[in-house]
Amino acid sequence: MTDRPDMTASPAAAPKIAEEDRLRADLYNFLGLILARPADGLLIEQTAGLAGGEGPIGEAVDTLAKVARLSKAKAVEVEYNRLFIGLGRGELLPYASYYMTGFLNEKPLAVLRKDMAALGLARAETVFEPEDNIASLMEMMGALIAGRFGTPAPLARQKDFFNRHVAPWAGHFFTDLEAAKNSVFYAPVGRLGRAFMEIEAEAFRMSAE
Question: How far apart are CA 44 and CA 188, in angstroms?
């Protein structure tokens, strides 16, 4: 699977990071990829081949893989459009500003853009939606952990970005996605994201103790 080109920066050679961090980055990148646009046949096939295991994340991965094995690209595209696009708007608005203020393009987006600039990240010219959408934020977290555009961010910087831009709303979004009336393929994506956000939040909290 490839990362979606929503950010631009000067890429560097992939640095070595701990296996646990690589797995975290991979999961953030997967969530970013699967939420960026309707999953095509290849991504659905790859998702169908995933193997989870024990625990909330493993169980969510197994459920998603089972649903993917029964899913067709056209049906997933229709579902995605109903969830996120719709006629005028979709069932869900996956933006930090909306979840945190009730409106789009508000202060959370301005704060994010400032922090992105400090990190040397910018929205690609070919992308037009606001940077505070859930897919882009998942990708940014993955990039920080893996050091995709430079040195891997230390845990304190990861925690700061997560607490400022992800923790206040992403768990609520994933809960809404899991329960959305139009969610079939994306319901277990919501379950996976919700479980991952809970684990990340607790891990960051424990890191301060």
Answer: 13
First to last CA, the chain: 36
**What is the pLDDT, as a whole number, of residue 208?**
67
3-state SS assignment for residue 201 = helix
Residues sharing a CB contact under 8 Å with residue 197, sequence separation 6 or more, in sequence order: 166, 167, 170, 171, 174
The CATH number of the structural domain formed by 39-207 is 1.10.3480.10
Q: Which has the closest alpha carbon to 11: 125, 126, 151, 136?
A: 151
Boundaries of every domain in the chain: 39-207
How far apart are alpha carbons 161 and 66 in whole angstroms?
Answer: 33
Residue spans of the chain under pLDDT 70: 1-15, 87, 208-209
Residue 146 near residue 14 (C-beta atoms within 8 A): yes
Question: What is the model's pLDDT at position 1?
Answer: 33
- The whole-angstrom separation of Cα 177 and Cα 187 is 6
Q: Kindly report the number of other CB atoms within 10 A of residue 42's CB atom.
A: 10
User: For residue 209, what pLDDT is reported?
Assistant: 57
**Taking phi first (over 0 means left), then psi (-120 to 50 degrees means alpha), and beta for anything else, what does residue 95 get?**
beta
Q: How far apart are CA 56 and CA 196, in angstroms?
A: 8
The model's pTM: 0.91
Q: Is the dihedral of CA 91, 92, 97, 98 positive or negative?
A: positive
CB contact at 8 A, 180 and 35: no
